[in-house]
Specification:
20 strands; four-stranded antiparallel β-sheet; mainly beta
Length: 386
């Protein structure tokens, strides 16, 4: 819209209308009917777009209409007419070229299932990417969601600034998995990173064979499995073939020295060694102070902080001077489970849990053999992040 500069004899001065001035002989400007009608029609179009009925005696309808249109947001977005992963929209005014920093908004018709593109009007479609530069992988755009994108000439792509209802918030925790048995892990399409925690199997305590009268046997507790921890980026290979998870078995209960626990691993990316078994000491006399060290738990762990070795098992003790102090050694505690509780005289040991060591056996003058506590099996915990 402009002043009617092309109309002959309209009487514009300096490009604008002027009033008649009889004293100075200035002739007033004319307002052509075509121009007056055009101005009125443009204002009526705005009023009617806000679903208002034009009223001749009301002078605030144009302002009301502008405010109402702004409140509905209808002028701030275009409706998508494309298909899933291929988004298109027509704008007023029409977008004829892409400029660096151009921001557009559209209401998506369908959700995306993978990488996506966007084309305003007849402009060539460009990929939609996340702010970190990664392509979409599915779920970032939802049906009927309002999508805001900004064009980057350096990346020749649309940056996804916001998406209502989508999963574009990077770093969001999606799900937690706990694996207590050997398995294969397949990350879902929307998973970008995984935080993995592992514990190896716990070592078993030391048990006791049958004894002659007057003899004593004291077994130490098994050491706990090591703990490993890491944050890993998910790759296409992980999604396609999966990541094998090995859960280290706890050391088996024994009537002799304890058994080592197995190694837990997350593919070739991370591993945690099992704890070693407790040891035992046998004496031909019950009058001697007898102690046995639980040497397990020195399990090396791969990964990043706070990876650590498992706790050592506890000593067993035979103390004829204070009978209540005599016991088999407790199992070491792991980062995910407890060790077997220390056991009193002439009974089987207690098992560990999730990488914890089994407890040892304390026996005196008995022809019955006793099994030590088993080590707890290892464990793998996976936290998935977008």
């Amino acid at each position: 819209m402009d002043y009617p500069k092309s109309v002959p004899n309209v009487g514009l001065v300096g490009g604008k209308f002027v009033d008649e001035n009889a004293a100075s002989g200035v002739v007033g400007s004319l307002i052509p009917s075509a121009w007056g009608n055009a101005v009125t029609d443009e204002m009526l179009a705005v009023i009617q777009a806000a679903n208002l009925t034009p009223a001749e005696g009301q002078s605030d309808q144009l302002l009301t209409a502008i405010r109402q249109i702004d409140q509905t947001g209808a002028a701030s977005y275009a409706v998508d007419t494309g298909t899933a992963n291929t988004y298109k929209a027509a704008y007023t005014p029409k977008v004829t070229a892409l400029a660096d920093g151009l921001i557009l908004r559209f209401k998506a018709k369908t959700a995306n299932t993978g990488a996506a593109t966007f084309a305003p009007d007849s402009v060539t479609a460009k990929p939609i990417i996340l702010s970190a530069g990664a392509p979409l992988i599915g779920g970032e755009i939802t049906a009927a969601g309002f999508i805001t994108v900004q064009y980057s000439s350096a990346l020749d792509a649309w940056l996804l600034l916001s998406a209502t209802g989508g999963s574009a918030q990077q770093g969001r925790l999606l799900r937690v998995w706990i694996f207590d048995v050997t398995s294969t892990y397949y990350p879902a399409a929307q998973v970008r990173r995984v935080e993995v925690e592992l514990v190896g199997g716990g070592g078993s305590g030391a048990g006791s064979a049958a004894l002659s009268s007057g003899n004593a046997s004291v077994g130490g507790g098994g050491g706990a499995g090591g703990y490993a921890h890491s944050l890993l980026d998910v790759t296409d290979t992980m999604r396609a073939t999966g990541v094998p998870i090995t859960i280290g078995a706890g050391g088996a209960g024994s009537q002799a020295g304890g058994n080592v626990g197995g190694t837990s691993s997350f593919g070739t990316y991370l591993s945690a060694l099992g704890g070693t078994g407790g040891t035992r000491t046998v004496s031909a006399s019950t009058n001697l102070f007898v102690s046995s060290a639980g040497v397990g738990g020195r399990a090396a762990a791969d990964g990043v902080f706070p990876s650590c070795a498992g706790e050592d098992g506890a000593y067993g003790e035979n103390n004829p001077y204070q009978g209540t102090a005599s016991h088999g050694g407790a199992g070491g505690r792991s980062a995910m489970g407890y060790g077997g509780v220390a056991q009193s005289v002439n009974s089987n040991g207690n098992d560990g849990s999730r990488g914890g060591g089994g407890s040892g056996v304390y026996s005196v003058s008995t022809t019955t053999a006793y099994n030590s506590g088993k080590g707890g099996n290892g464990c793998c915990v996976i936290r998935e992040y977008y």
